[in-house]
Design goal:
alpha+beta, four-stranded antiparallel beta sheet
């Protein structure tokens, strides 16, 4: 299993969550098998998203779509502040 981990600085969680829920990259069709949204307890202006995939190529493809189609659009990512920090993780167990 592979996980695309994304950490965003955000301006407003409710605005960000509404945009996330609109699912502009069609997570299911992109191979996402599960997802988690977390918020650091000491930072209300940050969010961590983890998207799980069966194949590394699926995670890489979705990341490329996010970078080119979502994160550079204030309409699609209205509460994003700065560039997200990302990495792809491989399950070790």
């Amino acid at each position: 299993m592979y996980t695309l981990q994304i950490e965003h600085a955000i301006t407003d969680f409710d605005v960000w969550k509404a945009a996330f829920d609109r699912d502009p990259v069609n997570r299911a069709a992109s191979g996402v098998t599960a997802h988690r949204v977390s918020r650091p307890v000491d930072d209300p202006h940050s969010v961590v998203v983890e998207l799980d995939f069966e194949q590394r190529a699926q995670a890489e493809s979705l990341l490329a779509n996010l970078q080119t189609k979502v994160w550079n659009s204030s309409d699609m990512a209205p509460a994003l502040k700065g560039a997200p920090k990302t990495r792809i993780l491989e399950s070790a167990l």
